Amino acid sequence: MVNPIGKLPPLNGLRAFEVSARHLNFRLAAEELGVTQGAVAQHVRGLEAELGLALFERLPKSLALTGEGRAYIADIRRAFELIANATTKLRPQPVKLTVSTTPTFASKWLIPRLPDFRAKHPDLDLHILATDRISSFQSDGVDLAIRYGNPPFGTALAAELLFDQEIIPVCNPSLIAIGAEPHDGKALSQYTLLHDTHNFWPEYIDRFLGFSDPALFRSISFSQTSHAIEAAIAGQGIAMATLAFVSADIRAGRLRQVFDGVLLAQSGFYCVRPRYRKSDAVDKLQDWMTSQP
């Protein structure tokens, strides 16, 4: 049989005492609790009356704990911590998922869409591991990876296409006005070509523009596609970019497509996960990703 709990002092008085002991000031304690200063002082006086001893020395502009008050507050704080911890354990905890992506995918596709994900799945917490290296599902604790390439990515991995890579040339609208697009190599050479590690410019020029050797054009190279896109937004040149990464910037008027041709890359972006690791949470995340426009 569980022993009954002995008589407890008023809980409002204990809370007012704990907060006042932290601030050593009834006014500041009242601000934290959202009540009046008089109410805090009254609760503390009631607790002191219940205990039959003084917990504070009332000073002109502050409070000081008495010896009894210092001894009492240590145990009261431990008791409140136990109550808080017990309450936290009762509440459902968000499921934490680790998503491995490239830095560009994270900054230009995933992060702008996170408010929609949080609204639809408040029970899921995401840790975004943005790196160019291939993360491990085991040692890095990855639940879902966004991989650029073509399946199969491994016999133990399942892959679902997220989107094909449609490559277009983009620039700041102030750099090249509509109707003023360069139509020969000499005109294009007046602009800086912004490259990333994928270097789609040679193929694009050969297939759609028929200009001379792209090596003759001025260029700036970046190790991250997102940096080339940001340089284009800043008006520093023309970048080759995946449509999915710049569609929001185009809608917002920060970028415009310079030439009409769309280059379909041989590789796409895939959701990849361990084939035999079942998880409702990962299913929700993957379903949300593949449903995005």
From TrEMBL:
Show the GO MF annotations.
DNA-binding transcription factor activity; sequence-specific DNA binding
Q: Where is the HTH lysR-type domain?
A: 9-66
Question: What domain of life?
Answer: Bacteria
Which Gene Ontology BP annotations are present?
DNA-templated transcription
Q: Which SUPFAM superfamilies match?
A: Periplasmic binding protein-like II (SSF53850), Winged helix' DNA-binding domain (SSF46785)
The family database entries (InterPro entries) matched by this protein are listed as:
LysR-type_TF_proteobact-type, LysR_HTH_N, LysR_subst-bd, WH-like_DNA-bd_sf, WH_DNA-bd_sf
Offer one Pfam family short name for this entry. LysR_substrate
Could you tell me which Gene3D superfamilies the record lists for this protein? Periplasmic binding protein-like II (3.40.190.10), Winged helix-like DNA-binding domain superfamily/Winged helix DNA-binding domain (1.10.10.10)
Under the heading PROSITE patterns, the entry gives: HTH_LYSR
The UniProt keyword set, sorted, is: DNA-binding, Transcription, Transcription regulation
State the family named in the UniProt similarity comment for this chain.
Belongs to the LysR transcriptional regulatory family.
Q: What is the name listed in the Swiss-Prot or TrEMBL entry for this protein?
A: LysR family glycine cleavage system transcriptional activator
Question: What organism is this sequence from?
Answer: Phyllobacterium myrsinacearum
Q: What is the lineage of its organism?
A: Bacteria, Pseudomonadati, Pseudomonadota, Alphaproteobacteria, Hyphomicrobiales
